[in-house]
DNA sequence: CGCGTTTCGGGATGGGCTTTCCGATAAGGT
DNA sequence: ACCTTATCGGAAAGCCCATCCCGAAACGCG
């Protein structure tokens, strides 16, 4: 109502005829609660004046905030969006404010952002996304992670290990292995694998798990092709593999978006799925539930993982590792005639 | 390195043998720059100690922050993710930190969150998503918006009007009208419309635009069915419409996710698209690029819109309205045999 | 060589709030 | 009725930093 008048606690206190101490006690409901009558007066004054506490000042005074950070590679990627959503829901329940940043897969940005969070005295942070195994940036990240934890803030990582912080790990190997066995059980035999960047642990684990699952069934892949961890990466890898004339009957892409890209590549060439080629992915992204044929995949409880990550990050304590089970979901894209 | 030692600017100053004033001047590069030698010393001291400025204190001291807020209905919805992404990129370029919240379509949450941003003394905020026309919550939101602006922060709205703030408005009516004419041009005649909640301006505008476009072609819709603005809403509305036995040959859903839901409903009933029924959506969500048949839709420059929203929000100034043109994209889902 | 002027470092203040510590008052005990 | 305890409000000391302002030193010029 009043133009640009920063109402302070002092204003409220004066209007209510009490000291700032009392006003503060009333409004933040802290340790000691003043007499009801005073509470009344203070509260009345507060909203008569339209008082809004200055969160910065509060944070400074009690040297702690209610801000938590989330780092994702790319918020447009539904995989990250799903996990971030879980984190945000959990944060909302705890009345925490969320700072979110897309690192655009840039390690420098990631580090810089973590530093910003430290500067903000964030209470905790959740880092989502597969760690690249580039030794140098790994070391620098580890260092910043160290500083972050040292500052007293909590930290949890999703899908990345090797850092001295809480870790949420989807069971990529087991899930992929299970998928391989399921597909073999359906009768598929000649597998092509569309792998992600070798530097991404997640991509590697899923590939390795799949290989292990195939081995369990006495099989080995006909071809392996690598591409970006994205839709376009999947598209390109599938084309590449086809161009090489690989004799495959089923494709496994290490994540859903790649799988969907691959399906588009196949469609562009008039290759029927699953008639001539089966396709499977990993993650069970909700947004892709409606692609046709329905994508066989491995379901991860993404939102759950996000929730849990926040919990762990806030709790603090000794670094722990929690593994989330993955579950094979068979759909039309690998149905046998 | 040192455990839990909050190193302050004073520490740095002392170690460097200068005053805090000097240290501050060196480290934030402000107006006056101290002599090179001192700069050297200060900087050395700073990173020897692993100094991180306390953003809260800085904010308090200069009473301004580098935090901006984003409010979306649901970050998992790729529509919001795309716009938010644009905002975040623009923020990143300006070295601004982003606080993001999903309101889960709850007006109360939205208001509360806006208040939090105010408490944080956020420099600006971007609200994304269609305003509901419920008079009461509208009024309360307007009030909070007023307070927010009054606090000196900038604000921009995407896809919502009626607030005294900068507004980014996709040209829903024109786009939908154009789509209707295009579809009519292709030979479709008996249209069914899958509308969103009547309270959502965006949904209404698109429906009305489509109606207008049809009228231009001397047509009117055979049936109109309403559902949630979500995938499931589209699915349900399509089923409903079909159950009513409406004699349609083409479905227009007021957004892509609804359209995709509708396509799934059709598929479940063995209705061929576009053989027996054409389907069109709105937004041109990137993640849905790979659904098959490719979805005819109206493209919105979502990332652009997000970017621009942030710019406007930061610039401040008199409320303005910017309209972004929408562009019809014809794909296989409405191809005529 | 003296004066005015500019440059530059430091002391001190303030920004808004929380919290410790004190003193005062009311309640309780004998 | 007096002393002990608990109760409760207020004054003030921070929290960490930016910045205003002052004084001193360096510089320029006549």
TrEMBL record, chains A, B:
PROSITE patterns: HTH_LACI_1 (PS00356), HTH_LACI_2 (PS50932). Residues 7-62 form the HTH lacI-type domain. GO terms for molecular function: DNA-binding transcription factor activity; transcription cis-regulatory region binding. PANTHER family: LACI-RELATED TRANSCRIPTIONAL REPRESSOR (PTHR30146), LACTOSE OPERON REPRESSOR (PTHR30146:SF153). Coiled coil: none annotated. It comes from the Bacteria. This is LacI family transcriptional regulator. Keywords: DNA-binding, Transcription, Transcription regulation. The keyword Disulfide bond does not apply. Pfam families: LacI (PF00356), Peripla_BP_1 (PF00532).
């Amino acid at each position: 109502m009043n133009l640009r008048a920063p109402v302070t606690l002092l204003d409220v206190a004066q209007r209510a005829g009490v000291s700032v101490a009392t006003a503060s006690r009333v409004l933040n409901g802290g340790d000691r609660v003043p007499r009801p009558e005073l509470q009344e007066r203070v509260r009345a004054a507060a909203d008569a004046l339209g008082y809004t506490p200055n969160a910065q000042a509060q944070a400074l005074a009690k040297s702690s905030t209610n801000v938590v950070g989330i780092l994702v590679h790319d918020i447009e990627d539904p995989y990250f969006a799903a996990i971030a959503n879980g984190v945000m829901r959990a944060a909302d329940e705890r009345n925490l404010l969320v700072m979110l940043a897309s690192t655009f897969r840039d390690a420098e940005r990631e580090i810089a952002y973590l530093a910003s969070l430290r500067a903000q005295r964030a209470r905790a942070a959740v880092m989502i996304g597969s760690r690249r195994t580039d030794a140098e940036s790994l070391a620098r990240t580890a260092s910043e992670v160290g500083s972050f934890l040292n500052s007293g803030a909590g930290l949890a990582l999703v899908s990345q290990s090797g850092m001295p912080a809480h870790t949420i790990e989807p069971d990529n190997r087991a899930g992929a292995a299970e998928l391989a066995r399921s597909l073999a059980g359906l009768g598929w035999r000649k597998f092509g694998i569309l792998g992600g960047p070798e530097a991404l642990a997640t991509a590697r684990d899923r590939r390795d798990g799949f290989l292990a699952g195939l081995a369990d069934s006495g099989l080995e892949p006909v071809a392996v092709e690598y591409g970006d961890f994205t839709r376009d990466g999947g598209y390109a890898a599938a084309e590449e593999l086809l161009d090489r004339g690989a004799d495959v009957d089923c494709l496994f892409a290490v994540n859903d978006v790649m799988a969907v890209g691959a399906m588009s590549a196949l469609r562009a060439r008039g290759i029927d799925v699953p008639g001539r080629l089966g396709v499977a992915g990993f993650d069970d992204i909700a947004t892709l539930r409606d692609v046709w044929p329905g994508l066989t995949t491995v379901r991860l409880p993404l939102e759950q993982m996000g929730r849990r990550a926040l919990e762990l990050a806030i709790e603090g304590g000794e670094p722990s590792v929690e593994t989330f089970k993955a579950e094979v979901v068979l759909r039309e894209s690998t149905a046998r005639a």
